[in-house]
Specification:
With about 325 residues, this protein is of the alpha+beta class. The chain has seven helices and eight strands. The strands form two sheets. It has a five-stranded antiparallel β-sheet with strand order 4-5-6-7-8. A three-stranded antiparallel β-sheet has the order 1-2-3, with no helix packed on it. The protein is elongated, with a radius of gyration of 26 Å. The two termini are about 50 Å apart.
């Protein structure tokens, strides 16, 4: 629960409390607002290594005969510790200074902050995915009330993803993007909205979260205005190749995959920046996953790679 709300939000708090408690229209499996009980609790335990020590001594019965005795014992590893769930499963091995931020403590409070932010939550959906045996969690909120049409019959919804991990791969953070409804591509925003609460923060700062969420809508609408220009900005083969080379690096397989996907979008949309952009987000959202159990984390990793080449698309837009 959020315990500290600034005076400026007093009126909103009363309204948001009602909306939050009545949030029974979410279309996830729970059909209700998140609580701490929706997430497993984890804890840390010390690590030990088994050591076998051999001792040599002279036989008491036969002079000059040396005998050996092995002794096994456990020795604690002081540099690392294990993150373990309630069933005793080890989720990760982390450094001794790593501070666990519980999903149960922070994600329900973040959802509450969504209702305090003023975002229109009508029809809002929530999708919870985990990977790496529960060590990484992605909660994605989609807001159909904030729908924008980039071109005729090509709508997108605001999307906010919340990330947390127990293996040190992610700090707790949130990312803003969009969901293109025509193909369910996760649209990536370059100057992305992210909130890092640090390794040693165990609870959400309500005012910070609310303000960041308010900013997310502006970031989304600003980028949507850029996307509306993309269908009218032509791209040539050299520009397309440069973007794909920067994304794929030395991977010929990925380079070929991107060109094949672009050909399909080009046939549908034309040789323009919108087709190029959707090629990138199609790859990050839908390309085959080698390990489906880790799909949620793989999508985030791919989106980070797409983010790195988005300045190239912005340069094309500005030069048009």
């Amino acid at each position: 629960m959020l315990e500290v709300i600034a005076d400026d939000y007093a009126t909103q708090l009363q309204v948001a409390d009602y909306r939050y408690d009545a949030a029974n229209t979410l279309t996830d499996v729970q059909g209700r607002a998140l609580t701490a009980e929706d997430f497993i609790k984890v804890h840390t335990e010390p690590l030990y290594v088994k050591t076998i020590e051999s001792n040599e001594y002279e036989s008491l019965s036969i002079k000059g005969l040396m005998q050996y005795e092995e002794q096994e014992y456990e020795q604690q590893i002081h540099t690392h510790k294990a993150v373990v769930d309630d069933e005793g499963n080890i989720l990760s091995i982390v450094g001794k200074g790593y501070n666990v931020i519980q999903n149960a403590d922070i994600i329900p409070d973040y959802e509450r902050a969504i209702y305090l932010s003023g975002l229109d939550t009508t029809g809002m959906t929530r999708d919870i995915q985990q990977s790496h045996g529960g060590a990484r969690t992605v909660v994605t909120y989609t807001f159909p009330a904030h729908r924008i049409e980039v071109r005729k019959d090509d709508p997108m919804d605001l999307k906010i993803s919340v990330l947390n991990s127990y293996d040190g791969s992610w700090k707790f953070m949130s990312l803003v993007g969009a969901l293109r409804l025509a193909c369910l591509n996760g649209q990536v925003i370059g100057n992305f909205f992210s909130s890092f609460y640090g390794k040693h923060t165990k609870s959400l700062e309500p005012e910070v979260a609310v303000n960041k969420l308010r900013m997310s809508l502006g970031t989304y609408t600003e980028n949507a205005e850029y996307w509306k220009q993309y269908p009218n900005i032509p791209v040539n083969e050299l520009q397309v190749n440069n973007v794909f080379i920067n994304l794929a690096g030395e991977s010929k397989v990925l380079g070929e995959y991107l060109h094949n996907i672009y050909a399909k979008y080009q046939d549908d949309m034309g040789a323009n920046l919108w087709a190029l952009y959707n090629t990138l987000t199609d790859w990050s959202s839908h390309a085959e996953f080698r390990n489906k159990a880790n799909q949620a984390a793989t999508v985030i990793t791919r989106e980070q790679k797409v983010r790195k080449v988005l300045p190239m698309l912005e340069n094309i837009r500005l030069a048009a």
